[in-house]
Amino acid sequence: MSQLSTSPHLAVALSGVVEIPACFIYPLLNRFGRRRCFITFLFTTAMAMFLVFIKKNATLWLVLGLVGKLSVSAAFNMFSYVSEFMPTQHRGLALGVQQTASRIGGAVSPFVVDLVSDVHELAPSAVFGAVVLLASLAALLLPETAGRPMPETVADVEAAAHRKRFKKGAVYERTLSDDSTITDVTSN
User: Would the CA dihedral through 37, 43, 49, 51 be positive or negative?
Assistant: First the structure.
Protein backbone atom coordinates (compact mmCIF):
# COMPACT_ATOMS: atom_id res chain seq x y z
CA MET A 1 0.00 0.00 0.00
CA SER A 2 2.79 2.41 0.81
CA GLN A 3 4.05 2.07 -2.78
CA LEU A 4 0.79 3.66 -3.92
CA SER A 5 1.06 6.87 -1.90
CA THR A 6 3.54 9.69 -1.38
CA SER A 7 2.94 9.46 2.38
CA PRO A 8 3.53 5.93 3.72
CA HIS A 9 2.16 6.87 7.14
CA LEU A 10 -1.14 8.05 5.67
CA ALA A 11 -1.35 4.96 3.46
CA VAL A 12 -0.86 2.57 6.38
CA ALA A 13 -3.35 4.45 8.61
CA LEU A 14 -6.03 4.45 5.89
CA SER A 15 -5.27 0.83 5.12
CA GLY A 16 -6.14 -0.03 8.71
CA VAL A 17 -9.30 2.06 8.62
CA VAL A 18 -10.70 0.27 5.54
CA GLU A 19 -10.43 -3.02 7.39
CA ILE A 20 -13.34 -1.93 9.62
CA PRO A 21 -16.15 -1.85 7.01
CA ALA A 22 -14.84 -5.13 5.57
CA CYS A 23 -15.88 -6.80 8.83
CA PHE A 24 -19.55 -5.90 8.27
CA ILE A 25 -20.15 -7.84 5.05
CA TYR A 26 -22.33 -10.57 6.50
CA PRO A 27 -25.73 -8.95 5.72
CA LEU A 28 -24.61 -8.80 2.06
CA LEU A 29 -23.83 -12.51 2.08
CA ASN A 30 -27.34 -13.45 3.12
CA ARG A 31 -28.97 -11.03 0.69
CA PHE A 32 -26.88 -11.61 -2.44
CA GLY A 33 -25.31 -15.02 -1.80
CA ARG A 34 -21.82 -16.02 -0.78
CA ARG A 35 -20.53 -16.97 -4.22
CA ARG A 36 -21.65 -13.75 -5.89
CA CYS A 37 -20.18 -11.59 -3.10
CA PHE A 38 -16.92 -13.52 -3.06
CA ILE A 39 -16.46 -13.20 -6.83
CA THR A 40 -17.44 -9.51 -6.75
CA PHE A 41 -14.96 -8.72 -3.97
CA LEU A 42 -12.13 -10.52 -5.75
CA PHE A 43 -12.95 -8.97 -9.13
CA THR A 44 -13.17 -5.48 -7.60
CA THR A 45 -9.74 -6.01 -6.07
CA ALA A 46 -8.29 -7.09 -9.42
CA MET A 47 -9.80 -4.12 -11.25
CA ALA A 48 -8.50 -1.68 -8.63
CA MET A 49 -5.03 -3.17 -9.03
CA PHE A 50 -5.18 -2.82 -12.84
CA LEU A 51 -6.72 0.67 -12.89
CA VAL A 52 -3.59 2.18 -11.33
CA PHE A 53 -2.05 1.93 -14.81
CA ILE A 54 -4.47 4.54 -16.19
CA LYS A 55 -2.81 7.64 -14.81
CA LYS A 56 0.20 8.44 -12.65
CA ASN A 57 -1.51 10.26 -9.81
CA ALA A 58 -0.68 9.58 -6.15
CA THR A 59 -4.21 10.36 -4.94
CA LEU A 60 -5.80 8.07 -7.54
CA TRP A 61 -3.33 5.33 -6.64
CA LEU A 62 -4.12 5.70 -2.95
CA VAL A 63 -7.89 5.57 -3.54
CA LEU A 64 -7.61 2.53 -5.82
CA GLY A 65 -5.27 0.87 -3.32
CA LEU A 66 -7.82 1.42 -0.56
CA VAL A 67 -10.66 0.08 -2.72
CA GLY A 68 -8.55 -2.98 -3.44
CA LYS A 69 -7.66 -3.39 0.23
CA LEU A 70 -11.31 -3.09 1.29
CA SER A 71 -12.42 -5.64 -1.31
CA VAL A 72 -9.70 -8.18 -0.60
CA SER A 73 -10.29 -7.81 3.15
CA ALA A 74 -14.00 -8.47 2.63
CA ALA A 75 -13.16 -11.56 0.54
CA PHE A 76 -10.69 -12.75 3.18
CA ASN A 77 -13.34 -12.32 5.89
CA MET A 78 -15.46 -14.85 4.02
CA PHE A 79 -13.19 -17.72 5.16
CA SER A 80 -16.26 -19.59 6.41
CA TYR A 81 -17.48 -19.91 2.81
CA VAL A 82 -15.00 -22.75 2.28
CA SER A 83 -16.44 -24.70 5.18
CA GLU A 84 -19.96 -24.43 3.80
CA PHE A 85 -19.36 -26.57 0.73
CA MET A 86 -16.97 -29.07 2.30
CA PRO A 87 -18.29 -32.23 3.98
CA THR A 88 -18.11 -32.36 7.76
CA GLN A 89 -15.34 -34.95 7.85
CA HIS A 90 -13.07 -32.71 5.68
CA ARG A 91 -14.14 -29.25 6.87
CA GLY A 92 -11.34 -28.74 9.39
CA LEU A 93 -8.70 -29.87 6.91
CA ALA A 94 -10.11 -27.52 4.25
CA LEU A 95 -10.00 -24.55 6.61
CA GLY A 96 -6.46 -25.48 7.65
CA VAL A 97 -5.30 -25.66 4.02
CA GLN A 98 -7.00 -22.34 3.28
CA GLN A 99 -5.36 -20.61 6.25
CA THR A 100 -1.96 -22.12 5.43
CA ALA A 101 -2.19 -20.96 1.82
CA SER A 102 -3.14 -17.45 2.91
CA ARG A 103 -0.20 -17.30 5.33
CA ILE A 104 2.20 -18.53 2.65
CA GLY A 105 0.84 -15.86 0.30
CA GLY A 106 1.35 -13.22 2.97
CA ALA A 107 4.91 -14.38 3.58
CA VAL A 108 5.81 -14.48 -0.13
CA SER A 109 4.21 -11.17 -1.15
CA PRO A 110 7.01 -8.87 0.11
CA PHE A 111 9.51 -10.87 -1.94
CA VAL A 112 7.30 -10.53 -5.03
CA VAL A 113 7.23 -6.76 -4.50
CA ASP A 114 11.03 -6.65 -4.16
CA LEU A 115 11.59 -8.82 -7.23
CA VAL A 116 9.25 -7.09 -9.67
CA SER A 117 9.52 -3.47 -8.49
CA ASP A 118 12.76 -3.13 -10.44
CA VAL A 119 10.89 -3.85 -13.68
CA HIS A 120 8.31 -1.08 -13.19
CA GLU A 121 6.97 0.76 -10.17
CA LEU A 122 3.49 -0.66 -10.80
CA ALA A 123 4.62 -4.21 -11.59
CA PRO A 124 3.54 -5.48 -8.12
CA SER A 125 0.01 -4.23 -8.85
CA ALA A 126 0.02 -6.14 -12.13
CA VAL A 127 1.25 -9.36 -10.50
CA PHE A 128 -1.17 -9.24 -7.57
CA GLY A 129 -4.03 -8.08 -9.79
CA ALA A 130 -3.45 -11.05 -12.13
CA VAL A 131 -3.42 -13.50 -9.21
CA VAL A 132 -6.64 -12.09 -7.77
CA LEU A 133 -8.28 -12.07 -11.22
CA LEU A 134 -7.40 -15.76 -11.62
CA ALA A 135 -8.85 -16.41 -8.16
CA SER A 136 -12.10 -14.64 -9.09
CA LEU A 137 -12.35 -16.72 -12.27
CA ALA A 138 -11.67 -19.92 -10.32
CA ALA A 139 -14.38 -18.92 -7.83
CA LEU A 140 -16.89 -19.15 -10.68
CA LEU A 141 -16.56 -22.93 -10.31
CA LEU A 142 -17.59 -22.89 -6.63
CA PRO A 143 -21.16 -23.69 -5.64
CA GLU A 144 -23.56 -21.24 -3.99
CA THR A 145 -24.11 -22.20 -0.37
CA ALA A 146 -26.54 -19.55 0.90
CA GLY A 147 -29.70 -21.11 2.28
CA ARG A 148 -28.50 -24.67 1.69
CA PRO A 149 -27.65 -27.26 4.32
CA MET A 150 -23.97 -28.03 4.78
CA PRO A 151 -22.97 -31.43 3.40
CA GLU A 152 -22.28 -34.14 5.95
CA THR A 153 -20.45 -36.62 3.72
CA VAL A 154 -18.53 -36.73 0.46
CA ALA A 155 -21.57 -38.49 -1.03
CA ASP A 156 -23.68 -35.40 -0.19
CA VAL A 157 -21.23 -33.21 -2.10
CA GLU A 158 -21.26 -35.58 -5.06
CA ALA A 159 -25.06 -35.75 -5.01
CA ALA A 160 -25.31 -31.94 -4.97
CA ALA A 161 -22.91 -31.68 -7.91
CA HIS A 162 -24.83 -34.43 -9.71
CA ARG A 163 -28.21 -32.71 -9.16
CA LYS A 164 -26.79 -29.50 -10.60
CA ARG A 165 -26.20 -31.26 -13.93
CA PHE A 166 -29.80 -32.41 -14.31
CA LYS A 167 -32.98 -30.45 -14.95
CA LYS A 168 -35.58 -29.99 -12.24
CA GLY A 169 -37.69 -33.10 -11.81
CA ALA A 170 -35.29 -35.35 -13.70
CA VAL A 171 -35.10 -38.95 -12.51
CA TYR A 172 -31.67 -40.53 -12.48
CA GLU A 173 -29.90 -43.49 -10.97
CA ARG A 174 -26.54 -43.15 -9.27
CA THR A 175 -24.04 -45.53 -7.72
CA LEU A 176 -22.79 -44.82 -4.21
CA SER A 177 -19.31 -45.51 -2.88
CA ASP A 178 -20.45 -48.86 -1.42
CA ASP A 179 -21.57 -49.94 -4.95
CA SER A 180 -25.26 -49.73 -4.09
CA THR A 181 -27.51 -47.78 -6.46
CA ILE A 182 -30.30 -45.36 -5.68
CA THR A 183 -32.88 -43.60 -7.81
CA ASP A 184 -33.23 -39.89 -7.20
CA VAL A 185 -35.39 -37.02 -8.45
CA THR A 186 -33.81 -33.58 -8.68
CA SER A 187 -35.56 -30.80 -6.82
CA ASN A 188 -33.59 -27.70 -7.86
Answer: negative
Nearest to 186 by CA among 149, 157, 161: 161
Q: Are residues 103 and 34 in the same domain?
A: yes
Query: Which DSSP state fits 18?
Result: T
Which residue segment(s) compose the domain that 174 sits in? 154-185
Q: Is residue 49 part of a domain?
A: yes
Q: What is the pLDDT of residues 36-70, one digit of tens each?
A: 999 999 999 999 999 999 988 888 888 898 999 99
pLDDT tens-digit profile of 162-184? Answer: 666 555 555 556 566 666 766 66
Q: What is the model's pTM? A: 0.77
Tally of structural domains, the chain:
2
Q: Is there a single domain that holds both residue 174 and residue 123? A: no
Rounded distance between C-alpha atoms, residue 184 and residue 78, angstroms: 33
CA distances from 178 to 161, 174, 175 (A): 19, 11, 8
The whole-angstrom separation of Cα 49 and Cα 127 is 9
Residue 112, pLDDT above cutoff 80: yes
